[in-house]
Amino acid sequence: MAPDQPNKHTLHGAARILVVDDEPRLASALSTLLRSCGYDVTEAHGGKQACELADTLRFDLALLDLRMPEVDGFAVMSHLNSRQPECAIIVISGESSFTAVSRALRRGALDYVRKPFDPEELIATVKGVIGKQSLLKAHEDIQVRLEKSEALHRYIVNSSPDIVFMLDAKGHFCFINSKVESLLGYKPAELCGKHFRNILDERDLARGVYALNAPDISADNPRTLEIRLKTRGSRRATRHFEITAFPISPQAWTHNGSTNGGGNGQNASYYGTARDVTERKEAEAFINFQAYHDLLTRLPNRALFKDRLELAITHARRGHQKLAVMFLDLDRFKIINDTLGHAMGDRLLQAVTQRLEGCLRKGDTLSRFGGDEFTLLLPSVHGHEDASQIARKLIKTLKAPFLLGEHEVYVGVSIGIAIYPEAGCSMDQLIQNADIAMYHVKARGKDSYRFYSESMSIDSTHRLLLERDLRIALEKKELRVFYQPQVCARTDQIVGLEALVRWQHPERGLLYPRDFLSLAEETKLIGLLSEQVLDQACRDVGQWIRAGHKDLRLAVNLSPIEVEHPRFVETLIERVNANRFPPANLEIEITENVIMNDLEQISQKLRELANIGVRIAIDDFGTGYSSLNYLHRLPIHTLKVDQSFVKAIRSGVDDACIVNAIVAMAHGLKLEIVAEGVETEKQLDYLRALGCHQVQGFFYGPAQPAAEISKLLTHPKTEMAATASS
């Protein structure tokens, strides 16, 4: 079957089209497509050449890109409008911002096609515009001849792409062309004699009636307005029309004959046209939605949230009321996103949004602020308890697992809350302070909520300065590695060394992990910090191993963020191999909570490490889940008794019952046991009697730099005795 032939310009044969694009390959491909449909195509490689061609050649249609060097698409549109106003314009561009689209349409573009385009859709658009231009040109030609041919006048009215109508002095239809049937579903005859309000949407009824009664309306000053008209029945939705109407005098209109369409125009007092602009209005609405909403979750975006917050603050100020702003950050989302991929991450965000929306009151605004961050506006709250109730509800609704394909995942949420006017009187203050409060939740274990207080700002300023100094410290290698001996309880020999980081701050002196590790995790610097510590520890302990202490074990404590990272195993093996450290001499320490957060994934990682000889130790055992189930399922080698339990060893057996239980359990599972925080000889004797394998603590001295450890390893008995006696 032969392809549809394009519309032809009635006076000049095939329609002449100017294709403008600074990419010659794209311009050539588009030209070839159009020529295959019979159009006369001229190419312009850039805006400058297009303007030069427009000065010498006439075109029916121009297809142009917006982004071009030297002379862009908007400049070409202006040039064409001044030189060839009758030339139609279609924009074909990858630029999809609201500003660019709106600007192009205001400059006279009849359509906007996004790159990459569908060839069939593009051809249909070109045919439609060419056809429309042909009708408009025919319309203009016929207008000149209206005085000579009433028959021609009837043809153009009823062939018009718009509804053409006449009203009597009371607003009743006395003529309407047949276009009304295809656009609205009414037959012209059934509307004639009825008041025009019968087809007005109720929402625009007052505007429509007022428009024709305006005192300044005249033939020279017609009334133009956009209005909604009802379609017949429920087949189609209400449609948008641009109405242009003006009064006519009896002297100007004396026709009493028949016309095509409905009515004959007798007693006409008003003449008007109605152009269907539904598609344009829908496009504007979609562009507007894109500008103010997040397309993934369909929630208001940051811009719309700020607009609503600004308005809510104004109302609260006038009514002397309170409002709350919540800043929500999902816990563990990044790990899920990195592990399962961005597609699953997007599905998770949509599922989270649905649950959160189910907790809201009428009038609340939930927005996606960016990434896995959300903000929530609670207008008209009475105080902290109202906000607390909503926060607890939000946390509870995210407790249940999410099913993503075959994966069951858990996320929590950390919530910071700022109450107006206590936590700020401006939009920016409230958002910033809610954000600060949220970070304090993160620093204290996540999956909870906190209200902002002024002391948090002081802490935040201090943390900003500390973060700056920490970044400098990592660049200048100011971190130091100290080692705490792990001693055999039976022989007093050093069998292992736990690597502990210290920061030699240039102004504040030696800082301990409690002063900066939580900040390193929060600012995502923990990876680089751990890498430096592990490298140094591998070099130091590797040197002692090669010097004759071949069974010396290096114990390193790893952050949950590192262990949960998808490339944790690969990264650790890379660092160990880079420093030529024997894997069998390495023991990594992780907490129970890390394992239980994602038992399936962590189990796989631990097995991979155990397969190459790396030992696994559970740190702070007894303070977390303490589940016997995972102990026999996973390749665990060592349990470390938390120092809080060791401190309980005082006068009697009852004080140390937890230590007794842990040691007995370790013996039953054939695991090594290390007791932390041993400070007195009484504690040491008690642990020896229980059969505890190893101990570490201040009884044998604090953690020390590498130089002091070298002395201990060279003269262990002398140095250990001196340390213990001191």
Automatic annotation (TrEMBL):
Residues 463-717 form the EAL domain. Residues 16-130 form the Response regulatory domain. PROSITE patterns: EAL (PS50883), GGDEF (PS50887), PAS (PS50112), RESPONSE_REGULATORY (PS50110). The keyword Phosphoprotein applies. Residues 149-204 form the PAS domain. InterPro entries: Biofilm_reg_signaling, CheY-like_superfamily, EAL_dom, EAL_sf, GGDEF_dom, Nucleotide_cyclase, PAS, PAS-like_dom_sf. The keyword Cytoplasm does not apply. Keywords: Phosphoprotein. Residues 321-454 form the GGDEF domain. The modification 4-aspartylphosphate is found at residue 65. Pfam families: EAL, GGDEF, PAS, Response_reg. SMART domains: EAL, GGDEF, PAS, REC. PANTHER family: BIOFILM ARCHITECTURE MAINTENANCE PROTEIN MBAA, DIGUANYLATE CYCLASE DGCP. This is EAL domain-containing protein. It comes from Marinobacter xiaoshiensis. The lineage of its organism: Bacteria, Pseudomonadati, Pseudomonadota, Gammaproteobacteria, Pseudomonadales.
